[in-house]
Amino acid sequence: MTVEKKPFETEVSRLLDIVTHALYSDREVFLRELVSNASDACDNHRYQVVSNKSLKDEAREYQITLSVDEKAQTLTVSDNGIGMNHDDMVSNLGTIARSGTAKLMEQIRKAKKAGGDGTSLIGQFGVGFYSAFMVADKVVVTSRKSGEDKAWQWVSDGKSGYEIDSADKENAGTDVVLYLKKDAKEYLETIRLKHIVEKYSDHISIPVMLGEEKLNRGAALWQRSKSDISEDEYKQFYQHVAHAGDDPLLTLHWKAEGKFEYSSLLFIPTLRPYDIFDPRREHHVKLYVKRVFITDNCEGLVPPFLRFMKGVVDSEDLPLNISREVLQQNPLVAKIGSAITKKVLGEIKKMADTDDVAFKDFWYNYGQVIKEGLCENVEHREAIFDICRFHSTHSKDEQVSIADYVSRMKEGQDAIYYLAGEKMDILRSSPQLEAFKKQGVEVLLLNDMIDEYWLPAVSDYKGNTFKSAIRGAGDITGQSKPETPEEEKEQALAGQNDLTKYIKEVLGVSVRSVRLSKRLTDSAVCLVTDEGDLDANIERLLKMQGKMETAYTRILEINPDHPVIKRLGDMVKDGSAWEESSVTRDMVWLLLDQARIAEGDPVLDPAKFSERLARTMEKGLSVAA
Questions:
Q1: Separation CA 531–CA 514 (nearest Å)
Q2: Is the pLDDT assigned to residue 120 strictly greater than 50?
Q3: Is 472 left (phi over 0), alpha (psi -120 to 50) or beta?
Q4: Would you state the pLDDT for residue 489?
Q5: Spatial contact of 558 and 482, defined as CB atoms under 8 Å apart
Q6: Number of neighbouring beta carbons within 10 Å of residue 414
Q7: What is the distance between the alpha carbons of residues 121 and 267, in angstroms, rounded to a whole number?
Q8: Which part of the chain has CATH 3.30.565.10?
Q9: Which residues sit opposite 78 in a β-bridge?
Q10: Which terminus of the chain has fewer Cβ atoms in its 10 Å neighbourhood, N or C?
Q11: Which whole number is the average pLDDT over 108-120?
Q12: pLDDT tens-digit readout, 4-57
């Protein structure tokens, strides 16, 4: 066969330059990544042997072997796992399936700005193999896939591209040969290699051998007693299983016994994964059955709103000899998943109650993801609410829990009021809050995009309904006797009917209606939403996503006690406002624009807004003169 010469994908070339230069300071992690890849290959083969009866004769004692050739100046990492064929090499070694180089560059810049070097990002971006080029001028991968007779060889200098050719290899598995750079000869030293394996890979279940010596203990850490495990051992295992360089923010290790048995060793990363908000992102909690690796993304094992979790779950009861797809449909997976969710939420709640600093870091990183659970996980919704935190009018700096909010509700108040928007400073200064502030009624201020999605799905919290502060006529439950529609109509007609009629005539279809406000105390006007309409903020989101073209027209509320509104009322009464050229028409439009600006919305017509503002200012200056 003719040797195939292929260029790297553009992203691979850029990434290799990053790995070789930007991440140069902690090069020893290359061995962690290669040993982890070899361990995964052995785990995958072990699963295939157990689940596929036709492969039962391929059972073997798995091993990862490090070998040094001082004369050739090479370090080889070998395994007898699943192996690769031609297509696997092209897919796994010539492309980057999920890294996103632009995002990696951004994360590296952030890490450097924070005083780090970005080394911990290698494994997170699924590009661990390429770390070999930090220490090697050339890498040769020879592999034979289990169940196939033909072997293949992949060769690259990490710069110009790679070559693939057929090869000779007696047994299934993979050999990765690194031709070390002149300044990387330390990785030929036995003591150096032993130290790196003990540091990063001590808990890998597959034996890692150097000559006749086993370098790792190889015990399943999650099966050991918590009292026998040090914090450093937990940390090293976390860094192995998560391909991470940070410390875990929270470690959860427990064994469940009873109707079904399983062991769990789970971690919450301190650093937020770069793709945490990608809806396609899957969790990376590895599922084992009786110490046999099954998969690292079993659907139903961990809910999507906990997809940042890393670690291992090992079941004693799930069957081994079925496919991953069928296994995921096993009802026991759902039961284990529910138990894990309950345990994790309970431990996060403990952290919230006992370690305020750690919990604030957690909520900053994962709060928006946790709130997704309010939409999709009814079973654990109350427990999710227990750890949710929100901004509110009660405090400028500290976020509050729903339980705290309910404890401060006024006598007779049966609604949890909220105001949703994009920017916190705009929310805090919103005119819609004036009556709430005056009467001491707390309002939640919601500026996360996910807030507009869980709110429609959640009707109440322990009998207290969620109610938008901009909906309805502005009555604050329990603070005043609500008026009947007839009383409200009479009130609107009393003395102000001409003014509301005039404003509606000027604005036309730009507003649904004009009415006197019960919520304004200081501002002249505000825009509100009718009870049956979408909340204003979700309208904005739908329009941004191209899912809504025409927005609902809103109701303009006016404050009858405001000097501008009073003056307008006088001008309507004496007839001067009805003149076609009257400045009052400009003032009415400016009031509408003012209401929109206060909510963070653009004015309806910027050119006309400027003209009206200029005319009004000119009129005001002439009167002052």
A1: 15
A2: no
A3: left
A4: 46
A5: no
A6: 13
A7: 17
A8: 4-215
A9: 65, 175
A10: C
A11: 55
A12: 988 876 666 666 766 665 444 578 888 988 998 898 899 889 888 877 777 777
From CA 192, how far away is CA 68, in angstroms rounded? 12
β-bridge mates for residue 392, sequence order: 395, 444
**Do the beta carbons of residue 43 and residue 293 sit within 8 Å?**
yes
Q: What angle do CA 204, 287, 80 make, to 5 degrees?
A: 45
- Architecture of the CATH domain 485-530+545-624: Up-down Bundle (1.20)
- Answer whether residue 339 shows pLDDT above 90: yes
User: How far apart, in whole angstroms, are the C-alpha atoms of residue 96 and residue 107?
Assistant: 17
- Specify whether the CB–CB gap between 419 and 430 falls below 8 A: yes
| pLDDT, tens only, 608-620 | 999 889 888 888 7
- Pair 359, 352: CB distance under 8 Å: yes
For tokens 């400009």, the residue is 586
Beta-ladder partners of 75: 68, 178
Global confidence as pTM: 0.69
Query: What confidence tier does 486 reach under pLDDT thresholds 50, 70, 90?
Result: low
Share of the chain above pLDDT 90, in %: 47
Q: Residue 82 class from Cβ within 10 Å (0-12 exposed, 13-18 middle, 19+ buried)?
A: buried
Residues 6+ apart with CB under 8 A from 482: 475
* Cβ pair 200, 240 in contact under 8 A: yes
Measured between its terminal Cα atoms, the distance across the chain in Å is 95
DSSP labels, 391-430: EETTEEEEEE-HHHHHHTPPTT--EEEEEE-S-HHHHHT-
Parallel/antiparallel/unpaired status of strands 464-468 and 415-420: parallel
Q: Quote the tokens at residue 295.
A: 């998969």
Which residue would you say has higher pLDDT here, 467 or 541? 467
Mean pLDDT on 307-311: 93
**Residue 73: closest CA among 187, 179, 189, 190:** 179
Give the residue from 401, 377, 404, 403 showing the smallest Cα distance to 390: 401
Residue given tokens 């005539």 in the structure block: 505
CATH code linked to domain 226-354: 3.30.230.80
Q: Where in the chain is the domain with CATH 1.20.120.790?
A: 485-530+545-624
CATH of 4-215, one of 3.30.365.10, 3.40.50.970, 3.30.300.10, 3.30.565.10: 3.30.565.10
- Cα 507 versus chain centre, distance: 43
**pLDDT per residue over 49-102, tens digit each?**
877 777 777 878 999 999 999 999 999 999 999 999 999 998 888 655 344 445
Which one is predicted more confidently, 289 or 20? 289
Q: Which two tokens stand for residue 533?
A: 């309409």
Using an 8 Å Cβ cutoff, are 6 and 94 in contact? yes
In this predicted structure, the answer to whether residue 168 has a pLDDT above a threshold of 80 is yes
pLDDT tens by residue, 576-591 = 777 766 788 899 999 9
Q: How far apart are CA 302 and CA 336, in angstroms?
A: 9
- Tokens representing 469 are 């502060």
Residues of the chain with CATH 3.30.230.80: 226-354
Q: Which amino acid is at 208?
A: V
Task: Give buried/exposed letters for 343-353 (b at 16+ CB in 10 A, else e).
Answer: ebbebbeebbe
- DSSP for 263-315? EEEEEEESSPPTTTT-TTPPPEEEEEETTEEEES--TTTS-GGGTT-EEEEEE
